[in-house]
Amino acid sequence: MKDNIFLIGFMGAGKSTVAECLHKCCGREILEMDQVIEGREGMEISRIFEIHGEEYFRRLETELLLELQERENLVVSCGGGAPLRSCNVEAMKKSGQVVFLTALPQTVLERVRDSHDRPVIEQNKNVDFIAGLMEKRREKYEAAADVTVATDARTPEDICGEILEKIKKFQN
Ligand code: S3P
User: Which of 11, 27, 36, 104 is the most exposed, fewest CB within 10 Å of its CB?
Assistant: First the structure.
C-alpha cells in the first residue's frame, strides 16, 4: 500500500510543523528522519557532519529511506537534502506520495535564524546564500514532487488541508 506521505523541501520549509499537523488531524505516525538518525548515531546532526562528514550522513539517510519502504500510515519529515539522491526519491515513491513544501528564501531565513542545528547553512544565514542553494536544489525537488504546496504566510492547518485535498486523487 502506497499510503505514506513524504514531506520534502528546503530547510525551514515547515516539514516538521506540517508533519505534526498531519499527525493530529489524521492519526499518522510521524517519522522525523533527522531525529531517527540522531537517535541511532547517539549524536546531533551537526556533530555527525563534524565527525564523519556529510557523505556519511547522506548514506544514513538512504539506509533509513530504504527501510521505510516497508512501513505504512506514516508522515515522514525528510531532511532537506534527502531528495537530492535519486535512489532516495525512488524509495519514497515505493511507499507513498511526495509532497514538496516551498518557502521563499526570506521566509526560510526567518524560520531558521535562531536555531543552530543545520550545518549546511550555519555559517551562511542570509537570503543570498539561501536563495542560491535553493535554486541549485529546485530541479531535484520539483522532479521528486507528486504535489507542491506553498507555505509562506499560511497556518499549518491551511497547508495540511491543501495537502490532503491534493493527494486524494492518488489514494482512490
Ligand atoms: C539538510 C537539512 C536538515 C538536515 C541536515 C542537512 C540539508 O534537515 O537533514 O542538516 O542538506 O538540507 P531539515 O530540512 O529538517 O532542516
Answer: 27
Residue 70 CA: distances (Å) to CA of 27, 37, 64: 19, 18, 11
- 3-class SS at 125? coil
Q: Where are the beta strands (DSSP E) in the chain?
A: 4-8, 29-32, 74-77, 96-102, 147-150
> pLDDT tens-digit profile of 147-161?
999 999 999 999 999
State the pTM of this model: 0.97
Q: Which three cell numbers stand for residue 105?
A: 528564501
Q: Measured from the CB, is residue 71 less than 6 Å from ligand 1? A: no
| Residue 119 Cα to ligand 1 middle (Å) | 8
Residue of the CA atom closest to atom 15 of ligand 1: 79
